[in-house]
Write a structure and sequence with these properties.
Keywords: ATP-binding, Kinase, Lipid A biosynthesis, Lipid biosynthesis, Lipid metabolism, Nucleotide-binding, Transferase
Number of strands: 13
Strand content: 15-25%
Oligomer: single chain
EC number: 2.7.1.130
CATH topology of the largest domain: Rossmann fold
Family: Belongs to the LpxK family.
Pathway: Glycolipid biosynthesis; lipid IV(A) biosynthesis; lipid IV(A) from (3R)-3-hydroxytetradecanoyl-[acyl-carrier-protein] and UDP-N-acetyl-alpha-D-glucosamine: step 6/6
Function: Transfers the gamma-phosphate of ATP to the 4'-position of a tetraacyldisaccharide 1-phosphate intermediate (termed DS-1-P) to form tetraacyldisaccharide 1,4'-bis-phosphate (lipid IVA).
Radius of gyration: 21 Å
């Protein structure tokens, strides 16, 4: 069943309405739990400090908002300053594996940045500091994980679905109310190129209704190249006019498909798997059968980098497989040093944390 069509009201009829009513009632209980939990942390109960500065990169909703490119951007920024960065995350969806798909993707992009995965982010941070000697921790998906004190709270909001259909889980996709942005230090709106200016202004107004002084940085997820397994990068021009099949196991497959279309590709067919799907052997074999059934109608299969690190193959069903590589670009240009708007505020916040690292090292 397509639960998103229930949440967003796209599915009509008495049954769909009844399901929305039931989900709304369930969301009331969820809201009480979130309120009680946040009230405790707001008072400082149970919050533990790490020996090094911590930056949290999180979101308000479930599903893909584009945090991974933000984490990559930040890690590279601090590495360029000579700071030893470590990433900690929950490791959702990894099962019995040592790392989940996001960790594998981050390792491929950031081979000099260690990544510790543990549902107990405090324990993960201790390992990163004590055993890996990091000077700064990036906590991936940490806005709701409040037990670990953070020195900077960055929240990523996806412009294509900013507020989870306007309802808390399970009626919508919101993990907590939009009013929780009151505790954020800065918001990065991702995929701004996918919506018009009026929509962006409306999103910014809702953010400022929750936190009037919160800096907001606009960004785009910009495709830069195609990656063919294991490490062959080719030009995006290969997609221009190319008839493709799309395979993805991510939180926002619609945005990914639209990005490919903007790159000039013609999407002939697509297969969407659950977010963080492990690509078990039977799943991969099913994909091969499906791709063979498409015959000569396609010349390439395209997935995300997060998918490719699990597929670990250069072809499926006899068809070339490529991953779309996406980088974060901030509005106003890539150079934070010369930007004078909200991007400069982000730079100032990051520089403050970098100075804190230096001061602690000197001490």
């Amino acid at each position: 069943m397509d639960y998103r069509s229930i949440m967003n009201g796209g599915r009509k009829g008495p049954l769909a309405a009844a399901m929305r009513g039931g989900l709304w009632l369930a969301s009331r209980g969820y809201a009480v739990g979130v309120w009680k939990r946040n009230r405790g942390y707001d008072s400082g109960q149970g919050v533990l400090r790490c020996e090094v500065p911590v930056i949290s990169v999180g979101n308000l909703t479930t599903g893909g908002t584009g945090k991974t490119p933000v984490v990559c951007f930040l890690a590279k920024w601090f590495r360029q300053k000579g700071i030893r960065v470590g990433i900690v995350s929950r490791g959702y969806g990894r099962g019995d594996a040592d790392a989940n798909d996001e960790a594998l993707e981050l390792y491929a992009r950031l081979p000099d940045v260690p990544h510790v995965q543990d549902p107990d982010r405090v324990a993960a941070a201790s390992i990163a500091v004590d055993e890996l000697d990091v000077q700064l921790i990036l906590m991936d998906d940490g806005f709701q994980h409040r037990r670990l004190h953070r020195d900077l709270d960055l929240v990523v909001i996806d412009a294509t679905n900013p507020f989870g259909f306007g309802h808390l889980l399970p009626r919508g996709l919101l993990r907590e109310p939009v009013s929780s942005l009151a505790r954020a230090d800065l918001v990065i709106i991702s995929r701004c190129d996918a919506v018009d200016e009026d929509r962006l202004r409306g999103i910014e107004q809702q953010i400022h209704n929750a936190n009037a002084t919160l800096p907001i940085v606009r960004s785009q997820h910009v495709p830069t190249s195609l990656l063919e397994y294991p490490n062959q990068q080719v030009s995006l021009e290969q997609l221009d006019g190319c008839r493709i099949a799309v395979v993805s196991a991510i939180g926002n497959p619609d945005a990914f498909r639209e990005t490919l279309i903007k790159c000039g590709a013609t999407v002939v067919a697509s297969r969407e798997l659950p977010d963080h799907d492990p690509y078990a052997p039977e799943t991969v074999e099913s994909l091969r059968t499906w791709i063979r059934s498409l015959g000569d109608s396609i010349s390439r299969v395209v997935c995300t980098h997060k998918d490719l690190v699990k597929l670990c193959t250069d072809s499926l069903g006899g068809v070339l497989v490529s991953a779309l590589i996406v980088e974060l670009r901030l509005s106003g240009g890539e150079d934070l040093e010369s930007s004078e708007s909200a991007e400069a505020k982000l730079h100032a916040l990051l520089a403050k944390v970098a100075d804190q690292v230096t001061a602690e090292e000197d001490y």
